[in-house]
């Protein structure tokens, strides 16, 4: 059973996150914890007092009820936490296989700036759902841009596609770093060598998927250019875009990476940010 933590804030994006989890429960056995974080500003505490906490409790109870009514067989509970939102959601991810949160971007919700910060530190994969989300049968897209293999990221995408009965597209983006581009003027073979390295990486990824999921409908994209732009274009209409997270620590956190960061700002579809190490459900 997959343990899912879904973050809510009473906005449209929080509602979309709930809808996404309900939809997911149609093809996966879930144990759901709906989580809200109560961290009022001083002015809000003065103006609303205990009513502000009661509002959070009401929103949380309604979210739990929505899931229970829509999917009676799903185990669901509420978890009202107090403190700094980012720290509390990262802590909640410790006991989860998947953390789901809305963007809050379109309507300026309480978590509008949180998804990027949470995805960089969560202890499990994070799915960020745009407020405008509706179900799509456009398949799963996994975006890669490194010559190094990323099995945890690719495996997550393959499992998502298999569970949803959707095709998987592996999109490998590549470009020549600026310093290398300068060297190309003196060594024209550098460009061809870079292209070859990335093509080999894509081929290895495809072999990995075919070996593990031989029945999965598999497609590929191999494009030169800015990864965030290419992936945003390719992911239009997809049911899920999967990208990786660097695991090199920086001040206690991981590096999200510019591509994942930019995609969480543009949100062409729900975006899953997967750590480089395998999750418990892998």
Task: Report on this structure.
The protein is 41% helix and 23% strand. It has 282 residues and is α/β, with parallel strands linked by helices. The protein folds into 2 domains: 2-129, Rossmann fold; 140-275, Rossmann fold. A 10-stranded mixed sheet has the order 3-2-1-4-5-12-9-6-7-8, sandwiched between helices. Strands 10-11 form a two-stranded antiparallel ribbon. A hairpin with a 2-residue loop joins strand 10 and strand 11. Mean pLDDT is 83; it is low at 105-111 and 249-255.
Secondary structure elements and pairings:
Elements: E1 2-7, H1 12-24, E2 30-38, H2 42-48, H3 50-70, E3 75-82, H4 85-92, E4 98-102, H5 114-119, E5 126-129, E6 140-144, H6 151-164, E7 168-174, H7 178-184, H8 189-212, E8 218-224, H9 227-234, E9 240-245, E10 249-250, E11 253-254, H10 258-266, E12 271-275
Parallel strand pairs: 1-2, 1-4, 2-3, 4-5, 6-7, 6-9, 7-8, 9-12
Antiparallel strand pairs: 5-12, 10-11
Poorly predicted runs of 5 or more residues: 105-111, 249-255
Could you report the average pLDDT, rounded to the nearest whole number? Answer: 83
Main sheet: strand order: 3-2-1-4-5-12-9-6-7-8
**Which CATH class of the largest domain?**
Alpha Beta
Please give the count of helices.
Answer: 10
Summing up helix and strand content along with how strands pair, one would put the structural category as alpha/beta
**Strand proportion:** 15-25%
> What name does CATH use for the topology of the largest domain?
Rossmann fold
* Main sheet makeup: 10 strands, mixed
- Termini gap: 12 Å
H and E order: EHEHHEHEHEEHEHHEHEEEHE
Multimeric organization? single chain
Rg result:
20 Å
- Large-scale geometry: globular
The beta-strand count equals 12
């Amino acid at each position: 059973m997959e343990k899912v933590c879904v973050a809510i804030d009473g906005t449209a994006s929080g509602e979309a996150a709930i809808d996404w989890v309900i939809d997911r429960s149609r093809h996966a056995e879930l144990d759901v914890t709906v989580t809200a974080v109560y961290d009022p500003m001083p002015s809000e505490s003065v103006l609303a007092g205990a009513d502000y906490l009661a509002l959070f409790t009401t929103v949380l109870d309604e979210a739990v009820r929505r899931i229970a009514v829509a999917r009676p067989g799903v185990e669901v509970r509420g978890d009202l936490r107090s403190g700094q939102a980012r720290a509390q959601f990262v802590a909640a991810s410790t006991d989860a296989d998947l953390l789901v949160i809305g963007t809050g971007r379109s309507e300026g919700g309480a978590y509008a700036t949180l998804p990027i910060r949470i995805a960089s530190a969560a202890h499990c994969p994070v799915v960020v759902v745009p407020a405008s989300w509706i179900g799509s049968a456009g398949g799963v897209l996994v975006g890669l841009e490194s010559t190094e293999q990323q099995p945890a990221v690719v495996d997550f995408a393959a499992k998502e596609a298999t569970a949803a009965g959707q095709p998987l597209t592996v999109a490998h983006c590549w470009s020549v770093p600026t310093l290398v581009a300068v060297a190309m003027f003196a060594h024209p073979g550098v460009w061809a060598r870079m292209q070859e390295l990335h093509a080999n990486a894509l081929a290895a990824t495809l072999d990995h998927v075919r070996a593990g999921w031989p029945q999965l409908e598999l497609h590929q994209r191999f494009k030169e250019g800015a990864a965030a732009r290419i992936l945003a274009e390719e992911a239009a209409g997809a049911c899920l875009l999967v990208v990786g997270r660097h695991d090199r620590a920086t001040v206690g956190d991981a590096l999200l990476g510019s591509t994942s960061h930019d995609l969480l700002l543009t949100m062409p579809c729900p975006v899953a940010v997967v750590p480089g190490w395998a999750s418990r459900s892998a």
